Each structure stands twice: as C-alpha cells, then as structure tokens.
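Supplementary notes for students who missed Thursday's class. We covered one full example, reproduced here. Read the sequence, then the structure, then the short commentary at the end.
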Amino acid sequence: WFDRSTFFEAIFYKDQMEYIADFSQTGELIEYKMHLPVEYLPEAIKTQLESTGEIMNTLLKNKGNSIEYEAIVRDSRQLRYLIRITNLGKVIEERQL
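Structure (token representation):
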C-alpha cells in the first residue's frame, strides 16, 4: 500500500499478472490497471494497434466499469507512441513519446 495523499495505491499480483488499484480515502475502489500481455488483448484492439507498429507494452484500465487500453507501440522508424483506445476501438489519444 502507498499513501498518495489524496488516494491509496495497492500493487498486487493475481494469476501472475500485475495489478495497480487506486482506492479513495474511504476505501472505495476508484480504478484499477492491469499489465496485459499482448495475447490477452481483444483481437480487434490488437489489430488496430498493430496497424501502427509493434506493440511494446499494454495496460488495461478499468474506472467505473469503463474499460480502456493504453499501449506503447513502435513504428518502422523506431518511433514510439502512446495510444489510448476504448474497448470499442475508438482512439482517445495518440502521441509520440
């Protein structure tokens, strides 16, 4: 557990996957993040990310039962991008790192 002044953060492992959960000061779950192996991505999301380049790292975020994915993707010029995408495939953010 970590006290982040306005919330608490817990890091734990379940089924050999790392989770990071944020809790309010009253103990309510705010959101959780899960480091997600590429092979666990929904196929449509994986295909969309791969159209940009090689998927280097992925994260599933669940906040209020709203799921989105965050990925670091490297293109053919070796440039890295952060891409945030909804579970329906809509790109929320894409920026070069």
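Commentary. The beta strands are 2-3, 8-14, 17-23, 29-35, 54-63, 66-74, 80-86, 91-96. Residues 19 and 34 are 4 Å apart (CA to CA). If anything here is unclear, bring it to office hours.
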